[in-house]
Amino acid sequence: MSAPVLLVGTRKGLLTFTREGDRWALSGEDFPGVEVEFACRDPRDGTLWGALHHGHWGPKLHRKRPGGEWEELTSPAYPDDTGAALEHLWVVQPGHADRPGQLWIGTNPGGLFRSDDGGDSWTLVRSLWDHPSREKWFGGGRDSAGIHSIVVDPRDPDHLYIAVSCAGVFETRDGGESWAPANQGVKAPFLPDPDAPFGQDPHFVAACAAAPDVLWQQNHIGVYRSTDGSGSWTPISQDDGPVGFGFPIAAHPQLPGTAWVVPATADTQRAASDRKVRVYRTDDGGQSWRPQTHGLPQAQAWDLVYRHALDVDGSGDGVAFGSTTGNLWTSDDGGEHWRCVGNHLPPVYSVRFG
Q1: Residue 295 reports pLDDT greater than 80
Q2: In this model, does residue 6 exceed pLDDT 70?
Q3: 188 to each of 7, 50, 200, 247, 275, how far by Cα in Å?
Q4: Are 111 and 123 in contact (CB under 8 A)?
Q5: Quick one: CA torsion of 128, 130, 135, 137, rounded to 10 degrees?
Q6: Is 149 in contact with 206 (CB distance < 8 Å)?
Q7: What is the separation, in whole angstroms, between the first and last Cα of the chain?
């Protein structure tokens, strides 16, 4: 078995950290100087994926098959009749284990693309692009709406969730032939109707692999949890604490009551709350949260953690996150103790166990 790795997408390239004993060490650098917005390994066949953004050439998609070299692929393209152009590759999501060639990509300006041939070609999911709510979608941190979260139900390859900033969570049960908003209980106070069926600003959505009906959402206005497959959402933020605004959330793969967040100060500051880097963990479905700070800086810290920059491994014991200040931390005990494995890195955009 190969050594565990961390794939760290940064402002200046893709950094690979490899586990050596009880420590992580930098073992590779790819695409130096280029923004790597997201990188992951497909657990089905070991293929690596990189979503890049060149300052001059725009978004580029790269693939590296086991034993091979990185190759640039033809990026997803919007059909002429949409009047849209690809602006940003947000996330590459491998499909269901029963469909080895299927992949999904979320983009700006709010298009979802599917490949059925391992990434050699891509098709815009027109049912979502042409959804009746489309005209009211709008940008969050960018000028256009972006699909940044794609969750594939491990029980059913045709059952998916996506999260859009700003439009909310949408669900399909027929492989993308039709979509329905799934935002019951999520507030949108910035809209004329705060209880609107769509228009919310989810920052990231994750599911418990062992209990896929349990979903977790870090939203612009707080943290939410669903236990009925997005039929309804319950707010689980701290009324008197920092767990509220933030970008990432990670779900324990086996324990449906356990998740991690890294809160930040909203809304214009977007920096570590109280200038302390704190990971918060819940083990009771969000009824309570406790800080996990051992090994993390608790003064004069401005580290912000982006939506894809927090991850948990398949055991639930390994947790890792990186910050815009160029720091990378890992834990071997579910967040109880942290070790900084990289300082002075470029701003970190994504962290994924591979």
Answers
A1: yes
A2: yes
A3: 34, 33, 5, 16, 27
A4: no
A5: 10
A6: yes
A7: 12
Q: How far is residue 307's CA from residue 350's CA, in Å, rounded to a whole number? A: 8
Three-class SS state of 334:
coil
Q: How many CB atoms lie within 10 A of CB 123?
A: 14
CB atoms within 10 A of CB 45: 12
Among residues 22, 40, 29, the alpha carbon closest in space to that of 353 is found at 40
Q: Do residues 250 and 260 lie in contact, with contact meaning Cβ atoms separated by under 8 Å?
A: yes
Where does the pLDDT of residue 268 fall: very low under 50, low under 70, confident under 90, or very high at 90 and above? Answer: confident
Homologous superfamily (CATH) of 5-353 is YVTN repeat-like/Quinoprotein amine dehydrogenase (2.130.10.10)
- Distance, CA of 187 to CA of 136 (rounded, Å): 16
CA distances to 2, 79, 282, 318 from 288, rounded to whole Å, are: 38, 47, 6, 22
Amino acid sitting at position 19: R
Task: Give one DSSP letter per residue of 278-317, joined into a string.
Answer: -EEEESSTTS--EEE-TTS--SS------TBSEEE-TTSS
Residue 88 vs residues 165, 239, 323, 351: alpha-carbon distances, Å? 13, 35, 20, 18
Query: CB within 8 A of 269, min separation 6: which ones?
Result: none
Mind listing the pLDDT tens digit for each residue in 146-168?
999 999 999 999 999 999 999 99
Cβ 289 vs Cβ 243: under 8 Å? yes
Q: What are the tokens at 4?
A: 């565990």
- pTM for the structure as a whole: 0.97
Q: Report residue 31 as tokens.
A: 């695409």
Alpha-carbon gap, residue 234 to 252, rounded angstroms: 18
Reply yes or no on whether the pLDDT at 18 is more than 80: yes
Burial of 264 (C-beta count, 10 Å sphere; 0-12/13-18/19+): buried
Tokens 């319950």 locate to 234
Residue 9 token pair: 């997408």
Q: Note the residue count of the chain.
A: 354
DSSP 3-state assignment of 320? Answer: strand
